[in-house]
Automatic annotation (TrEMBL):
GO terms for biological process: L-histidine biosynthetic process; methionine biosynthetic process; purine nucleotide biosynthetic process; tetrahydrofolate interconversion. The lineage of its organism: Bacteria, Pseudomonadati, Thermodesulfobacteriota, Desulfuromonadia, Geobacterales. Catalyzes the oxidation of 5,10-methylenetetrahydrofolate to 5,10-methenyltetrahydrofolate and then the hydrolysis of 5,10-methenyltetrahydrofolate to 10-formyltetrahydrofolate. Pathway: One-carbon metabolism; tetrahydrofolate interconversion. It comes from Citrifermentans bremense. This is Bifunctional protein FolD. Its EC number is 1.5.1.5, 3.5.4.9. Belongs to the tetrahydrofolate dehydrogenase/cyclohydrolase family. It catalyses: (6R)-5,10-methylene-5,6,7,8-tetrahydrofolate + NADP(+) = (6R)-5,10-methenyltetrahydrofolate + NADPH; (6R)-5,10-methenyltetrahydrofolate + H2O = (6R)-10-formyltetrahydrofolate + H(+). Residues 4-119 form the Tetrahydrofolate dehydrogenase/cyclohydrolase catalytic domain. The gene is folD. PANTHER family: C-1-TETRAHYDROFOLATE SYNTHASE, CYTOPLASMIC (PTHR48099:SF5), C-1-TETRAHYDROFOLATE SYNTHASE, CYTOPLASMIC-RELATED (PTHR48099).
Length: 290
């Protein structure tokens, strides 16, 4: 069993980004700038946003965090997005998800200027990504690709099963791994929590790579996978005792795996690193450097 260490990979990517930024700054350009919008006080979101702001500093970026109250209206949030879109000093913006019930998240995402949409959630970026064109790619999915690439895990020609069909993880990773560029060229089956159990097992038991993003602790058990599988655990579940675990029963399944991501320290770290890659791309696009 080998660990796909997200911290090690993310640290290496961030060091590389910081070098590129310092070359741009030495040449007289301003630093890349990310704006983060956080609505309310969702505890995990607070921690993710803190990690994004800290990683901006490590990457040599400027960042600013705009906090809005839980009760903010959709209209007020859309107005703020318009202001950020028009602000030339911001290269990229993210609105931390989830948003409170009164706000339609997709309407907010649709209002972000595609050239500042470093989350890659806007339909224009999602569409370009699906077509294999240059685009901001959803950070978790992109981070998984970067992690597989870093550890030289073979993907082309492999059978990959994704469990979970969310717009931010399951759908984009299934498209990216099946595309014929970068790290793709896998044969991908997209399953989800409503896939009949028998069918799910039929798929996962013959998969070379399983990616799980369902938000259920211990969902993947040893009987579901074959020996030598590569297992990517996207789940982040907080147990009552304060422990964070993924969607995989790690102690039981790890001995069967050739490669496996830990939680914490796996995909989560890569999400933040991939967001930095997207921000650098937004900046380089702005200055026509790429
Ligand atoms: N606007 C967005 N909102 C959300 C996204 C996103 O990509 N864009 N993804 C998730 C949350 N997320 C990033 O925002 C995220 C999740 C997890 C981690 C992370 O580093 N996890 C650590 C453990 C976390 C902890 O200790 O609390 C790990 O796995 O090691 C970073 C970012 C939903 N919202």
């Amino acid at each position: 069993m080998n660990l796909l260490d997200g911290k090690r990979c993310a640290d290496s990517l961030i060091a590389d980004i910081a070098k590129q930024v310092s070359r741009h700054v030495d040449a007289g350009l301003r630093k890349p700038h990310m704006t983060v919008v956080l609505v309310g006080h969702h505890a995990p979101s607070e921690s993710y946003v803190k990690s994004k702001v800290t990683t901006c500093t490590l990457s040599g970026f400027e960042s600013n965090l705009i906090r809005l109250p839980e009760t903010v209206t959709e209209k007020e949030l859309l107005w703020l997005i318009q202001q950020i879109n028009a602000d030339a000093s911001t290269d990229g913006v993210i609105v931390q998800l989830p948003l409170p019930k009164q706000i339609n998240a997709q309407r907010v995402i649709n209002a972000i200027a595609p050239e500042k949409d470093i989350d890659g959630f806007h339909p224009a970026n999602f569409g370009r990504m699906a077509l294999g064109q240059k685009a901001f790619r959803p950070a978790t999915a992109y981070g998984i690709c970067k992690l597989l690439q870093f550890y030289q895990v073979p993907v082309a020609g492999k059978h990959c099963v994704v469990i979970g069909r969310s717009n931010i993880v399951g759908k984009p990773i299934s498209i990216m791994l099946s595309n014929d560029f970068d790290i793709g060229n896998a044969t991908v089956t997209l399953t989800h929590i409503e896939t009949p159990r028998e069918l799910l097992l039929e798929e996962t038991r013959r998969a070379d790579i399983v990616i799980v993003a369902v938000g259920i602790p211990g969902f993947v058990t040893p009987d579901m996978v074959k020996d030598g599988v590569t297992l990517i655990d996207v789940g982040i579940n907080r147990l009552e005792n304060g422990k964070i675990v993924g969607d995989v029963d790690f102690p039981a399944v790890a001995p069967k795996c050739e490669w496996i991501t830990p939680v914490p320290g796996g995909v989560g770290r890569m999400t933040v690193a991939a967001l930095m890659i997207n921000t650098l791309m937004a900046y380089q696009n702005n200055f026509e450097l790429a």
